[in-house]
UniProtKB/TrEMBL annotation:
InterPro entries, A to Z: Diminuto-like, FAD-bd_PCMH, FAD-bd_PCMH-like_sf, FAD-bd_PCMH_sub2, Oxid_FAD_bind_N
TM segment ranges: 32-52
Organism: Salarias fasciatus (Jewelled blenny)
Protein's UniProt name: Delta(24)-sterol reductase
Keyword Membrane: yes
The organism's place on the tree of life at top rank: Eukaryota
GO cellular component: endoplasmic reticulum membrane; Golgi membrane
Record EC number: 1.3.1.72
Cofactor(s) the protein needs: FAD
Its job: Catalyzes the reduction of the delta-24 double bond of sterol intermediates during cholesterol biosynthesis. In addition to its cholesterol-synthesizing activity, can protect cells from oxidative stress by reducing caspase 3 activity during apoptosis induced by oxidative stress. Also protects against amyloid-beta peptide-induced apoptosis.
Keyword Transmembrane helix recorded: yes
Gene3D superfamilies for the chain: 3.30.465.10
Domain FAD-binding PCMH-type: residue ranges: 60-234
Catalytic activity reported: lanosterol + NADPH + H(+) = 24,25-dihydrolanosterol + NADP(+); 5alpha-cholest-8-en-3beta-ol + NADP(+) = zymosterol + NADPH + H(+)
Length: 359
């Protein structure tokens, strides 16, 4: 009974405090309360739902059948818009809070929202070495599916929530881009619903003008409904070499050298001040030296950029073996260093984040 009374009193004091200060003040100045009590638990539930759904659909192979039906629904919405006289412009109906960008697109309120419910991995074709995916499939889903069957995307942008549609229509890059280019450079075909409601496929050979115009077009040419992307064989570990470098010229020189060496499957540099950085180079490997394994994705591990900084602080190079999927999503927990900026001076939030933000 006592703990309940204690919790009840705390809740009353908390509500009184909100009443005195005002909800706006609490949300703006004490946002950790909202983040810890609501946002994080909801995010965890949402992630669990999303991964379970992707896993079940992938295992049961039921998505391709529904794909055509869902695309027809998008065509119907576009044709309706045309029939109604094309009064406003169209945009994807995906709400701003679901995207990675912090910008809230006000145009979503005034434009005709076309609902695109396409979030599945349709087919992994290991003969052609291509995966066919829907535009809302995200990088977390893609690595969960592909890496588990021994394949991966040559360019796999770090954050779990980045979607194929956003990466094609916006932009995407990864520490393997010195070999394979940007995200669009590994795409071999796009399927789009155009403004007249027609469905077109474009590749290097077929409708090639459209194929080359789609990347970075931000949805202005049509709605992406599927993309075919190259895949390459994956190995379970990344052998990562950390090298602290000092002096701007040295940093540029070492980064250029590392990028020019195509033996390096991954090259990344994190700069901590004008004159200090850590350059990382990595290769995929089948085996790991047990004493050098670092499972950076575990919830109790430090944020990746903090871990990298420790090499700079100790002024020593080092080698570690990181599970491939954890390497890809190394910046997901901390969104690079963004979470630190949001949570500075908030020790309680740090503790909560520490607990909740597992990869
Ligand atoms: C905090 C932050 C971290 C980032 N980190 C990385 C990173 O680690 N690596 C990296 O490569 N990039 C990164 N980016 C850039 C990011 O890849 C791009 O901003 C990308 O466009 C975001 O994709 P999204 O899935 O959030 O898509 P959205 O923001 O929803 O879409 C991006 C654009 O594509 C259009 N679009 C989306 N789907 C469709 C569709 N089906 N049909 C037509 N048009 C469509 C949208 O209208 C919009 O114009 C980051 C961006 C931010 C804000």
């Amino acid at each position: 009974m006592e703990p309940l009374l204690y919790l009840g009193s705390l809740a009353v004091i908390f509500l009184l405090w909100i009443k005195v200060k005002g909800l706006d003040y609490v949300i703006v100045h004490q946002r950790w309360i909202f983040v810890c009590l609501f946002l994080l638990p909801l995010s965890v539930l949402f992630d669990v739902y999303y991964y379970m759904r992707a896993w079940i659909i992938f295992k049961m192979c039921s998505a391709p059948k529904k794909h055509d039906q869902r695309v027809r629904d998008i065509q119907r919405q576009v044709r309706e818009w045309k029939k109604e006289g094309s009064k406003t412009r169209m945009c994807t109906g995906r709400p701003g809070w679901l995207t990675v960008s912090l910008r809230v697109g006000k145009y979503k309120k005034t434009h005709k929202n076309i609902m695109i419910n396409l979030m599945d991995i349709l087919e992994v074709d290991t003969e052609r070495q291509v995966v066919r995916v829907e535009p809302l499939a995200n990088m977390g889903q893609v690595t969960a599916c592909l890496n588990s069957v021994g394949w991966t995307l040559p360019v796999l942008p770090e954050l779990d929530d980045l979607t194929v549609g956003g990466l094609v229509m916006g932009t995407g890059i990864e520490s393997s881009s010195h070999i394979y280019g940007l995200f669009q450079h590994i795409c071999v075909a796009y399927e789009l619903v155009l403004a007249d409601g027609s469905l077109v496929r474009c590749t290097e050979e077929e409708n090639s003008d459209l194929f080359h115009a789609v990347p970075w077009s931000c949805g202005t040419l049509g709605f992406l409904v599927a993309a075919e992307i190259k895949i390459i064989p994956a190995k379970p570990w990344v052998k990562l070499h950390y090298e602290p470098v000092r002096g701007l010229e040295n940093i540029c020189r070492r980064f250029t050298e590392a990028s020019e060496n195509k033996q390096n499957a991954f090259v990344e540099g994190i700069q901590y001040s004008e004159n200090t950085a850590v350059i990382m180079t990595g290769t995929m490997t089948d085996h790991a030296e047990p004493d050098k394994v670092n499972r950076i994705g575990l919830h109790f591990k430090p944020w990746f950029f903090k871990h990298v900084e420790s090499y700079l602080n100790k002024d020593r190079s080092g080698v570690e073996y990181i599970p491939l999927r954890q390497y890809y999503h190394r910046h997901t927990r901390s969104i690079f260093w963004e979470l630190q900026v949001h949570t500075e001076h908030t020790q309680l939030l740090d503790a909560f984040l520490f607990f909740f933000l597992t990869s």
